[in-house]
Amino acid sequence: MGNLMAAGGIVSVPLLIASILALALIAERLFFWFRVNRRQGRMVREVLQLYRQDPDLAMKKLQLNADLPVARIFLEALALDDPNPEEFRLALESAAQAEFPLLKRFNTVFETIINVAPLLGLLGTILGLMQSFGSLRLGDVGGSDTTGVTGGISEALVSTVMGLVVAIFTLLFANTFRSFYVRQIALIQEVGGQLELLYRHRYERDRGEQKYASTR
After folding, report:
1. Sign of dihedral through CA atoms 176, 36, 102, 74?
2. Is the pLDDT of residue 183 over 90?
3. Angle (nearest 5°) at CA 182 between 99 and 57
4. Is 216 exposed, middle or buried (0-12, 13-18, 19+ CB in 10 A)?
5. What is the pLDDT of residue 135?
6. CA gap 53, 197 in Å, rounded
7. Membrane-spanning residues where (predicted)?
8. Rounded CA separation 70/98 (Å)
9. Which of 85, 141, 158, 191 would give a disulfide with 7, using CB separation of 3.0 to 4.6 Å?
10. C-alpha distance from residue 50 to each of 60, 81, 166 (Å)
């Protein structure tokens, strides 16, 4: 690593920082999406089934899984005090909008690293070539500083490779997380619609029973 840093020149320092930052954020996002994808599907199925039988049991199940995005969205809507179906739908939508930034967290940082890393590599290439040309003596090839020429070329190549590697590595994971985000949005819309229908049926049934009881 020390030899690589020395060969890459001054731009290897920000590229190393960018790579460490990318690795840390990728690890965090991997843990987040692993936890969501592993638990959320089963949790949603159980909650919807419980809600058909007893809404209180569904609430308890959601509270036990409040670290999952869909659970927090459902809790926001179900915590309302006897809302009508329109209010319930608005609560679901508002809670979902609040979760979206958390689902695409660090996307801006990933995009910045993807865009900046190749530019830093290009900057290293230019600096390396400048060093090589500075070591050349026009008209006196034999007197040129060979070490400076080869060192500049090495810096140019290494910095370019480092910039591309950091950008490509980050891009692969960023696209993976983006696909997870898109699928999560689709899931939220699907299960949110299912819960809304269940609530609407329960609301209309309860209102019908109350109306029938009042007419007796």
Report:
1. positive
2. yes
3. 50
4. exposed
5. 62
6. 15
7. 6-32, 113-133, 153-174
8. 11
9. 158
10. 10, 19, 47
Measure Cα distances from 178 to 97, 118, 133 in Å. Answer: 17, 21, 43
pTM as predicted: 0.80
How far is Cα 14 from Cα 10, in angstroms, rounded to an integer? 8
Distance CA 203, CA 84 (A): 7
Q: Which two tokens stand for residue 64?
A: 């036990």
CA neighbor of 77 nearest in space, from 178, 163, 193, 210: 193
Q: Which two tokens stand for residue 203?
A: 């609301």
Residue 210 — pLDDT band, cuts 50, 70, 90?
low
Tell me the C-alpha to C-alpha distance, in Å, between residue 203 and each of 93, 139, 165: 19, 92, 56
User: Tokens standing for 211?
Assistant: 């109306």
DSSP letter at 65? Answer: T
Tokens 């309860």 found at: 206
Compute the average pLDDT of residues 71-88: 90
Q: What sign for the dihedral angle of Cα 189, 190, 194, 197? A: positive
Six token digits for residue 67: 């670290």
**Residue 97 identity:** Q
Q: Give the amino acid at 178.
A: R
Task: Compute the distance between CA of residue 80 and CA of residue 62 in angstroms, rounded to an integer.
Answer: 15
Cα 44 → chain centroid: 21
